Structures are given as structure tokens and as C-alpha cells.
Amino acid sequence: IPMDLIDQTSIMAALKKAEPDEIYNLAAQSFVGVSFDEAIATGEVGALGVTRLLDSMRFMAPKAHFYQASTSEMYGLTPGPQDEMTRFAPQSPYAAAKLYGHWVTQNYRTGYGLHASTGILFNHESPIRGIEFVTKKITDGVARIKMGYIPEIYLGNLDAKRDWGFAGDYVEAMWMMLQQKNPDDYVIATGETHSVREFAEAAFEHVGLDWKKYVKQKQEFMRPLEVPHLEGNPAKAKEKLGWTPKVSFKELVAMMVDADIEKYQNPTKHSEQFLKHI
Ligand code: GDP
Description:
This protein is an alpha/beta fold.
């Protein structure tokens, strides 16, 4: 069923047709770096899009359970560990738009009694992560270096710290939120933080290479503003939802590197799109 978050009528029509029990709003321009170049479009979908969806839901599917994908980027400059009560200080148009979406979801929950929950998800990764993100850029680079296709990779800030978890675990948490009697806000994270440098070190180490020989820095991958330290405290999700992440940092890195190596070793199994940047 086609639907566009900037077109209210299309949302109403889609909800009428689908008669949903659960609505998961994951739609956004979600690349932090790109949001500086496309700030208006990022706000149009990430902030107002949520409002349009909630407003449509109010009339077309008021009994449905709603999930809003909030993000740890909303914490911005406030250092970790971060939980549901931590002060927000967004550092990008993406984060500012998401914070609007976060608060407007709470407004519709308290104002109109909708079953609307938010998940403040920390970075969640998997083998199908887009190449725009640093984890995939590194694991894809490791595979291409290992195969002898390229000599090195270029990154920006190596000191930034992120709480990286496995996307599969996090999607389970989203679903759990919508099975609760009452809607609420939850931090979903591993509780463990690592620098970009540590991620690169672990990824190269997994194939027996020393990252220092293959990772170079380039100014063009630095951001105008940076979020230095994300480290979530998932205690509330653990206590109320019974959720804990199953995949560790090391397992996640290994899973992503192995998948990228397999992709280049068996190119015929994978689409042209995957291979176009060899
Ligand atoms: P984000 O946390 O949603 O912004 O996820 P990203 O994977 O895009 O970025 C995580 C961190 O890695 C940020 O602090 C970036 O500044 C840093 N980083 C360093 N080099 C790169 C790079 O080449 N690409 C990206 N995307 N991020 C980089």
C-alpha cells in the first residue's frame, strides 16, 4: 500500500485500507551526515511526518499501538551513560527532527490517549547496514582489503564512541513495547561503548590484519558537529519488557566482517548493487 509521510491524504487512505493493529514508524532521512546538507527534507519527514502519521492515526486507527523510532542521537553533547531521563542536546538536523518526533509522540499519548510508545534506540547494526554508516564502511573495507581489491580505507573521527548493538535484537524490543498494556518510552542499548578506532581494530583483527596499516583519516569524513559519546542504560527495558541483547560487540563485528567476505567470495550469489563499488 503506497504512502508518503509528506502527504496526509495518502496516510489516511493507507490506514483506512490496512486497518492496522500495530504501526511502526521507522521512516526518516536517517544519515546524520547527510542531514546537514538536506536539513529541510530531514525535518519534513523526521519531525512533521510523525505528526501527520499520529494525526491520521487519531482519526483512522485510534486503537492501534504505535511505535516511534527515536534515537540516541537526541542526547548529542550530553555524555553517557544515558537513560530515559537524561537531558537531550541534539547536534544535527537529524537529531533535532527526531527529538520533535519523540516529544510529539508523547503529546499524542498524553493528549489523546493513544497507545504510542517511543524506543530510544542506540546504534543498531547488521550485515544489511548501509555503506553510509561507519560500521559497514569498515567491515566492507576489511573484506575488500582482504580480497586484494583496495589497499586502504578512509575514515573521519576515530575517537567518537558508540553503543553498537545487533539490529535483530532491537527489533524484538520494538515489538515487545507494543505488546505492553501501557505505552511508554524505553532506551534500547547494550550498555557498552566502543570508539570507532576500537571497531576498526576488532574488524581487522578478525581477519588477522593490523588496522593501523590500512585505516587513514580524511577531512571530508569529519562532521561539522559531532556526538562524542553514546552509552545507553537499558535497565528500564530489562525490568519492564524483560529485554536483553543477545549478540555481543565482538560477535556483531565478526558477523558483519564474515558476511562481507562471503559477499565478495561468492559474487554471483549477490546482486550487482552490492558489488558495484569494487
Ligand atoms: P551515527 O551515530 O548515526 O552518526 O552513525 P555513523 O555510523 O554514521 O557514525 C558513527 C560515528 O562514526 C560518528 O561519530 C562519525 O563521525 C564517525 N565516523 C568516523 N569516520 C566515519 C566515516 O567515514 N563515515 C561515517 N558514517 N561515520 C564516521
